[in-house]
Design brief:
By secondary structure, the chain is of the alpha/beta class. The protein is elongated and about 160 Å long. The chain starts with 27 loop residues before the first strand and ends in an 8-residue tail after the last helix. A hairpin with a 7-residue loop joins strand 4 and strand 5. The strands form 7 sheets. A 5-stranded mixed beta barrel has the order 1-3-4-5-6. A 5-stranded parallel beta sheet has the order 8-9-12-7-13, sandwiched between helices. A 4-stranded mixed beta sheet has the order 16-17-19-18. Helix 4 runs parallel beside helix 6. The chain has 26 helices and 24 strands.
């Protein structure tokens, strides 16, 4: 029968009939085992009769209008527990409502706890569960200890209720209205969310004081858990709120962008980028990588840093010249014309460049050597690279390596770093716009080395034709083929280039220019260029040949022509000012006018000041910027035979001075020098320009002649210069830099050069006009030098 919940539970049965069964003994109760719930006295609890036996137990209580004995079973997995499977302490409960017509088919009941009971023995022979029990009443007496615990329990209960969600103030008022200590402990225990076993332990605690302590321990632990849960919840809620706020703002931003048309712009931008990836014709693996990056970019928020980084990266990938353009045919005749028009002299260098182009024409797929132009500043190394690009009809790009001390400037930075960018090599190829460009690696000998790696080591892969086919820039993260790039390097001195890097290149020496070559370069190239730079015409200002030669001879002394161009520019600027004041001005600059425009002559013959002076010899030195004259001065003073050296001399040069003095002493009889004079005098050797460090063995012969002429009291010819290393046997050994030294002697007005006989083969590298202006004397021993350079016809006072 379906029983309406409004009927009294005492009258409602499953069959709908009213019966008058026999009454149970007074010390007995109908039992209702529960699996997961503990009912405390004073607590109202809904229960459910899931099995047929439980329904019989409840209906028997309803028919007899008898209370129920709610007791927790020991094993919650057992559906029909035996008598010994129940805890011994339970709660007497009144049945407030019994409902049988629930939607889930189960019987529901609402019970209110009254008091505790203790199981004694089961009642047999019944169709429902019943047992003899002992009713337990709470003690009514109180003391100070109990009152104190009650006060603390009320406070802790208030704290716990404040931490509970959806808990109102009515619950706190209800607890304050409870006066009995035992009932208060039971009520609070019923509110605690603790395991059933823990609640059963509190239910079985009969002593009021112990029960209060037990509940206080449980509520303290529960308050701590609730507090931590609240803190964690607040933190989580804060994170979620921030995330939700960000999502909401981004959605609003998208809506605003859509309304303004900005989002359409982003979609169009991504569409154009996808088209650029398609038309870039990247290699298969690179194209796959680029499209993966494009997919990631489409999912990234527009305002995020990942979007900006990804956009820059893909733009770089699409702008790189992955395709190899069709090679222009190499015209050797055209290349010859280009080189002759742009450069005067340098015949061996130009011939080697033409050979290089000829090999490239016959074998375009071959690994051509990497040329390195080696020479002092201003001799045209960079312009030679431009001429090669013109001859090949390819784009020209210059990469300055001077002062680069970070490997990342060659290989690039990884994209994980803020402000990352590709290396100089990839940036140069991108700027050139062609994978077969001519790339000039300028100042290769000025590469530094710092804490961020060695750039020279990174250049090894760049300049190796076998490795640069798959050059990997850290920023790109994909291989790029550099094998089609024509690399040209420049340097001032080979010593500044790392050995493995030098081994990968072919060195082409570009020595300094002679006076005749400088004159031709000035007349053909520098004068027209400076006229145009100053806005003048040939009619407004003219420089005669004698004027140009005077500028070359008296105002410049360098291996290259940069200083010469500056002096010519200064002359034209002087005229430009006068033309600007009066457009009818016409000027022809003569040599006598140079003093007014450029000032007094800056260079004159230094040899003329050393005529008829014993102990003064003109030597020749090599420097990174070309050759130079090196004057050796020797003097003696009364002393005890010491040797003094000044002028910033290096260790090798000091040793040469020691060897020269020893050699003079060993040949004192041959040179007719009194041996006692060495013991009575100190010898002082000085090399002027003391602020400039000097080193090397090539001044050995000059020092020997200076000391010998000093003690022989014979002057040295001022129109002669000498170079060479000496041995203690008097043999003259070969030295380097002959070409630069000879050109320096020519610039300084020297007409006779003494050099080791084994260096005579090096004269082939000297221009013919320079060789014709100088008389060369080969030296095998120092005696040959004495016979040639010491003026034996004039004795000093």
């Amino acid at each position: 029968m379906n029983t309406d919940s409004s009927k009294s539970p005492e009258k409602a049965t499953e069959s709908g009939e009213t019966s008058h069964p026999s009454a149970l003994p007074k010390d007995s109760l109908i039992l209702l085992p529960v699996r997961h719930t503990v009912l405390f006295p004073g607590m109202v609890l809904p229960l459910m009769a899931e099995t047929a036996q439980l329904r019989q137990d409840v209906q028997a209580a309803v028919r007899r209008q008898s209370p129920l004995g709610i007791v927790l079973q020991r094993d919650p997995q057992v559906m029909e527990p035996p008598f010994d499977g129940l805890h011994t302490i339970g709660t007497v409960a009144h049945l407030l409502r019994y409902l049988t017509n629930s939607q889930d088919g189960n019987h529901h009941l609402v019970c209110q706890g009254v008091s505790r009971f203790k199981l004694i023995a089961p009642l047999d022979g019944l169709d429902f569960r019943a047992a003899h029990v002992e009713f337990i009443a709470d003690a009514s007496q109180t003391d100070a200890a109990i009152d104190a615990r009650v006060l603390v329990l009320r406070q802790r209960a208030g704290e716990m209720i404040a931490l509970l969600p959806n808990a109102g103030a009515d619950l706190v008022k209800a607890l304050d209205a409870i006066e009995a200590p035992g009932l208060l402990a039971d009520t609070v225990a019923g509110l605690l969310d603790i395991p059933p076993e823990r609640k059963q332990d509190i239910l079985e605690t009969i002593d009021i004081r112990k029960r209060l302590d037990n509940v206080l321990d449980a509520i303290a632990a529960r308050i701590e858990v609730l507090r931590l849960s609240l803190e964690i919840g607040e933190q989580t809620r804060g994170r979620l709120d921030e995330k939700q706020r960000e999502v909401m703002l981004r959605e609003q931003l998208k809506t605003i962008q859509t309304q303004l048309g900005d989002n359409v712009g982003r979609q169009e931008e991504l569409k154009q980028l996808a088209q650029a990836v398609t038309v870039a014709h990247m290699p298969t693996d690179v194209d796959k990588h680029a499209r993966k990056e494009l997919d990631r970019l489409e999912r990234a928020p527009e305002g995020s840093s990942e979007y900006a980084i990804g956009m820059s990266y893909l733009e770089l990938l699409t702008e790189l010249p992955w395709d190899l353009p069709p090679a222009s045919p190499i015209d050797i005749a055209h290349a010859r014309v280009v080189l002759e028009e742009a450069h005067f002299g340098l015949e061996k260098v130009k011939r080697r460049i033409l050979e290089y182009l000829g090999v490239r024409k016959l074998n375009p797929e071959g690994n051509a050597p990497i040329l390195c132009f080696l020479g002092p500043p201003g001799v045209g190394k960079t312009s030679l690279g431009q001429s090669i690009a013109r001859a090949l009809q390819r784009p020209f790009i210059r990469v300055s390596l001077g002062g680069v001390h970070d490997e990342s400037e060659i290989r690039g930075h990884r994209r994980t770093y803020i402000g990352a960018m590709p290396g100089n090599i990839i940036q140069a190829v991108r700027k050139a716009g062609a994978r077969n460009c001519v790339m000039l690696l300028d100042e290769l000998d000025k590469l530094g080395r710092g804490v961020h790696g060695d750039p020279s080591a990174a250049m090894l892969e760049v300049l190796d034709p076998e490795q640069n086919r798959s050059f990997r820039d850290n920023y790109l993260g994909v291989p790029f083929d550099l094998s089609a790039v024509v690399f040209i390097a420049t340097a001032n001195q080979a010593e500044g280039i790392a050995g493995p890097l030098r081994d990968r290149m072919e060195m082409l020496d570009l020595p300094g220019y002679t006076e005749a070559e400088k004159f031709q370069i000035a007349r053909r190239f520098l004068v027209p260029r400076q006229l145009k730079a100053c806005g003048l015409t040939e009619a407004q200002c003219q420089l005669g040949d004698d004027t140009i030669r005077s500028i070359v001879r008296e105002y410049t002394r360098e291996a290259g022509v940069r200083s010469l161009e500056r002096q010519i520019g200064a002359v034209f600027r002087y005229v430009a000012l006068r033309v600007a004041e009066d457009e009818a001005t016409r000027e022809r600059i003569e040599p006598d006018d140079l003093a007014t425009i450029l000032g007094h002559r800056r260079f004159e013959s230094e040899v003329a000041m050393r005529i008829n002076m014993p102990g003064v010899v003109t030597g020749l030195a090599w420097t990174p910027v070309g050759g130079d004259l090196l004057f050796i001065e020797a003097s003696r003073t009364p002393g005890n035979g010491r040797l003094l050296l000044t002028g910033q001399l290096g260790e090798v040069m000091k040793e040469s001075a020691q060897a020269a003095l020893t050699l003079v002493k060993s040949r004192s009889d041959m040179l007719q020098i009194d041996n006692s004079s060495f013991e009575k005098h100190d010898v002082h050797i000085h090399v002027p320009a003391g602020a400039v460090p000097k080193d090397g063995p090539s001044a050995g012969v000059a020092m020997f002649i200076a000391i010998a002429s000093l003690f022989m009291r014979m002057p040295v010819r001022s129109d002669c210069a000498v170079t060479g290393e000496i041995s203690l046997r008097g043999i003259v050994l070969p030295v380097g830099g002959i070409k630069e030294k000879v050109l320096a002697a020519l610039r300084g007005g020297i007409h006779t050069v003494l050099l080791p006989s084994r260096n005579m083969i090096d004269l082939e590298d000297i221009p013919t006009d320079a060789r014709n202006q100088i008389r060369f004397v080969p030296l095998n021993t120092v005696d040959d030098a004495l016979r040639e350079i010491v003026d034996t016809n004039s004795l000093a006072a």
